Amino acid sequence: MNMSKVSYITEEGLKKLREELAHLESVERPNISKQIAEARDKGDLSENAEYDAAKEAQGMLEMKIAKLKETIAGSRIIDESKLDTSKVQIMNKVKIKNLKNNAVMTYTLVSESEADLKAGKLSISTPIAKGLLGHKVGDKVDIQVPSGIIPFEILEIAL
């Protein structure tokens, strides 16, 4: 078994993961067990679509629970007081300018589990985030994205 990868996360992010896990274990798991029992009570399992669906849902749920547990186990809380803004790193808010079309965007770089593009939270594992890491304000960075290479300029780094 490979070591689960470490992901850096805020305290709030970890709390959300733990709450989701608790919900899956204390609410979803008993619900599915109940569905399986009810489907089983209906008799012939060989052509019981409800039973098959419930068993499949159970399998998916158990995989989700295992994955969440692994994520939580590999999570390290970021000490936000130790973050600095001299160069781009996780938890920084980065304002960048696309030098092709002059669009200015601001993203906060977060762990994969906290990513939410609508909220401007960009996963640290995306090509753009990886391309920005370690660079300073004023740096121009060429970043390979699915549609080609885009030149960005880092305008500002904040917390």
Along the chain, the helix and strand elements come as EHHEEEEHEE
Mean pLDDT: 88
Count of extended strands: 7
Number of helices: 3
What percent strand? Answer: 15-25%
**Overall outline:** elongated
In angstroms, what separates the terminal alpha carbons?
37 Å
Radius of gyration, in Å, reads 22 Å
Helicity range = 25-40%
Structural class: alpha/beta
Largest sheet: 5 strands, mixed
Spatially, the strands of the biggest sheet line up as 5-4-3-7-6
> What's the quaternary structure here?
single chain
Low confidence ranges: none
In words, what does this structure look like?
The chain is an alpha/beta fold and 159 residues long. Helices cover 39% and strands 25% of the residues. It contains three helices and seven strands; from the N terminus they run E-H-H-E-E-E-E-H-E-E. The strands form two sheets. Strands 5-4-3-7-6 form a five-stranded mixed beta sheet. A two-stranded parallel sheet has the order 1-2. Helix 1 packs antiparallel against helix 2. The protein is elongated, with a radius of gyration of 22 Å.
Summarize the structure.
This protein has about 160 residues and is of the alpha/beta class.
State the main characteristics.
159 residues; alpha/beta; 5-stranded mixed beta sheet; 3 helices; 7 strands; 39% helix
